[in-house]
Each structure stands twice: as C-alpha cells, then as structure tokens.
Amino acid sequence: MQKDFIAELQWRGMIHDMMPGIEKQLSKELTSAYVGIDPTADSLHIGHLVGIMMLKHFQDAGHKPIVLLGGATGMIGDPSGKSKERNLLDEETLRVNEAGIKKQVMKFLDFDASADNNAKLVNNYDWMKDFSFLGFIRDVGKHITVNYMMAKDSVKKRLSAESSEGMSFTEFTYQLVQGYDFLHLYKAENCKLQMGGSDQWGNITTGTEMIRKMEQGEAFAVTTPLIKKSDGTKFGKTESGNIWLDPKKTSPYKFYQFWLNASDEDMSNFVRIFSTKSKDEIEALEKEHNQAPHLRVLQKALAEEMTVRVHSQEALDMALKASSILFGKSTTEELASIDEDTLLSVFEGVPQVTITKDELAAVDNATTFLAETTQGIVFKSKGEARKMIQGGGVSVNKNKVEDPNAEVDFQLLQDKYILVQRGKKNYYLVIVE
RNA sequence: GGGGGAAUACCAAAGCGGCCAACUGGGACGGACUGUAAAUCCGUUGUCUUUCGACUUCACAGGUUCGAAUCCUGUUUCCCCCA
C-alpha cells in the first residue's frame, strides 16, 4: 500500500528479528497487528513508545494497528522480565488505567472508525476473565507441550541452577496466556502479526504455534531491539524517575528537557525510532547536526516533535520559554517581564517558601536572608550560605550575589516573588506576602 | 580450641604522643570553560560561626599523660593462619 512497512522499520533500525514470509503477507492484504502493553499505571511512559511507534508506522503503511492492554497478563508477570511476579490489579484500577492509556495512544494512532485500517484498543482481561481454569487447560493447554514451554529462554533461565528463586506455576503459564491472546485476536480480528521487544520473541512464537496447531493458520512475529543508551543506563529514566506521557506525572517542560539532553551518540537511534520524519529529512538533520554539533539540531528537532505530539504546541512554547529562563542568559529584566502564570508554571515543583514583607524588611544581609529568613530551604546554616556565596554559587533573580554581607535590596518579581538560585540547576521561589 | 592482624569522615586509604578536624584518591556539591555535553582546571566537603574561634569526631568503655586517632586495660565486630 502506501509504504513498505518492513523496509521502513529496517532503515529505522527497529527490527531485531522477524519471521519469514511477513513481507508477502503484508503486500497481499490489509493486515492487523498488535502490540501488548501492561496497564500497570494510568499513563504510558516513553519506554512504551517504541511499540506504539511500530504500530504508527504499521498504520501509515495502510495496515490496522491493535493495542492490546494486558489486563490479564499484567496480573501475572512475564518470567523473563524482572523475574518477579506482579501485584494483581483490581478491575476498577484496570479500567482507570485503560482509559488513561487510550487517551494517550490516540495521539499517535488514528482511531477514526470510518477508515478501514482504524486503530483499535482491546483488553485481554475482557476475554480472559470468564475463562474457566478447566476450560483453559482443556482447550488451550493440551495443544502445547511442556517440553515446548521449557525450551524457552525465559523459562530455562528460571529453572537453571544459577537462578536464586523458583518460578511459580502462574509464571510458567504466562506464555500460554499471552499466546492465547494472539490466538484470540487471530480469530476475532483476523490479526496475523504480533510485535514487541526482542525479549518477547519466545512468548510471541508460542502464540504463532497455537495458531498453527489449533487453526492451521499462519501468523507472524516482528521484534525490535531493546533500546540501549551509549552510557549503558536504562532508557527513559532520569534521576527523578520515569518519563511519563501524563503531564501531571512529568511536566511538558521536563519531557522536553529529556529529549533535549539526550547524548549525541544516542540521537541517531532515537530520532529514527521516535520521529515520524522521513529518511531524507532525518539524514539532512543529521548532516546539519554533524556540522555544528553544539547547536544540537537533532535534539531540538526531536524534542519539539515529541512535545507537540504528546502534549501540544502551547506546551512546547511554555517549555521553550521555561528553558530559556532556566538555562539561557536571561537577565533580571527578562525575568521581571514574565507574567505570573508563566512564572509559577516554570517554577512548579521547585521548593518554595512564603515570608512576610516585614520579615523581608528586617533582614540585615544576604547570608541571613538565604539561611534564616527563608527558613532553611536554600541553606541550613549561615556558614553554609556564606561559603557558597564566596564560591560564587548563589544568584538572586539571575544576579550573582557577590558579597555575603551585601544588603538585601531585591526587586520583587510581579511584586511578590524572589527567585533564588543555588548553582546552575537548583531554584527556590520565595513568595513575599 | 590455639596463634596473628585489623577497626579512621559518604567510600577507599594515610597518620602511630603535641605542628590533626586529620595527607591523598574517589564520590558529592559549587566555580571557570562548554553545547543545559564530555574532557580539563579551580574551590568546598564534621557542626556552628563575619575574621578570631567554639564545640563534637578516628569501633565501644575506661585509664596513663600538661596533652591521645596515636600508649595501656577491658569489650564488640571483622579478617587470616594452625587444629
């Protein structure tokens, strides 16, 4: 149809492994494919985006993407994952999470019912919840041998001598439950392809095996490499935790910053995986980037694209403004020109303290102000404050405090705020009332 | 059971009677440089304190001494060697 899906993924470096014959299948007819996501939270984080992007390209190639929420499988836990069983989610939480995730997925995939390749979101809890144990072992279990199941790496690892903990029967059964999802979708949606991270290969092939044995059908698997960062740390995490798509969990500003701060080495991977830009556009950007790496053209382009898609143009504008205040060479004047709403949203989450005008008036010098008047949020003691000022590490309203004994004569931003900065990255907002 | 050794700040590791709040390295935090990077260089790093200084630290409890992280006694923990 429009694009060659496999070729598209290939140049983007998103194919780790695939089953032969998939290309022929895709060129033959409109095909459905699914990616599974554990609904363990009411928001996706950027680690989930790899799977979502696969579906996005799949839909762009004219095929039908299905997002499968693992309401049932997520209750069990994949033995290959963190080798730890998950907590069971109750149904109410599950539905809340489902709604939150669907809202986010809609920003990537087209759910418009009038298109014949419109995206669909399903939850395996809906077909697994009424499945009886006897029904499952009779209809599904008997088609797959334990020998077959034991041969999977995820299982072997847990049975080997090095493994410190045993594997429960529930975990062992996981691949059957996941495999059954594929079978179910094959029958219900004519879904012939499952995609996922390379660690899912074994689980996916259990599904294709079931389809082959029970339906005499042919189904396929495509996996992507797990994202690695050049410094070896885990993708999608920062010191402050996961990068979520939900603006309440990760502000658009932080979201933008995450992409902007990606290292040069990682960028060529990231941009291919997460950007919808064409090959020509990306290669042109890379060329531009390599000519002037310090401008970080690639990081900016991807950060902008991602922020607009996940949040909005307004959110991006705000993030840009916040970034220029925090990291640019902005002056007290610029700071003062920012309206109250913007100021507060930029410094949302920053430690704050409220003092009175009288307290401010009573302050004798900068050291006292930073240690005592502000109730210790900036510095715990005057000695500490003094040392840091002498080391040149303190700014108020973007002006460096030069002398620990300087008199306090700060301009109030918007008539009520004082912005204190310790080092480059630690901000404190003092509210004067 | 017998013999030997070790315990020092966030970590590692010097110090073996006064010049020790304790060398040095790492880490952390600041500064300069830079691309909100890497590398490099500089500063701070027991607490409080404007300088001076004061106070609490070198496993724990006592002791010797004008003075102890350093010497003595006991206690605890760890390591090694021989049974």
Automatic annotation (TrEMBL):
One of its GO terms (molecular function) is RNA binding. L-tyrosine binds at Y34, Y174, Q178. One of its GO terms (cellular component) is cytosol. CDD domains: S4, TyrRS_core. It is an enzyme of class 6 (ligase). Residues 345-430 form the Tyrosine--tRNA ligase SYY-like C-terminal domain. A motif ('HIGH' region) lies at residues 39-48. HAMAP family: Tyr_tRNA_synth_type1. Belongs to the class-I aminoacyl-tRNA synthetase family. TyrS type 1 subfamily. One of its GO terms (biological process) is tyrosyl-tRNA aminoacylation. Pfam families: SYY_C-terminal, tRNA-synt_1b. It catalyses: tRNA(Tyr) + L-tyrosine + ATP = L-tyrosyl-tRNA(Tyr) + AMP + diphosphate + H(+). Its main location: cytoplasm. Its EC number is 6.1.1.1. ATP binds at K237. Catalyzes the attachment of tyrosine to tRNA(Tyr) in a two-step reaction: tyrosine is first activated by ATP to form Tyr-AMP and then transferred to the acceptor end of tRNA(Tyr). A motif ('KMSKS' region) lies at residues 234-238. InterPro entries: aa-tRNA-synth_I_CS, aa-tRNA-synth_Ic, Rossmann-like_a/b/a_fold, S4_RNA-bd_sf, SYY-like_C, Tyr-tRNA-ligase, Tyr-tRNA-ligase_bac-type, Tyr-tRNA-ligase_bac_1. Gene3D superfamilies: HUPs (3.40.50.620), RNA-binding S4 domain (3.10.290.10), Tyrosyl-Transfer RNA Synthetase (1.10.240.10). This is Tyrosine--tRNA ligase.
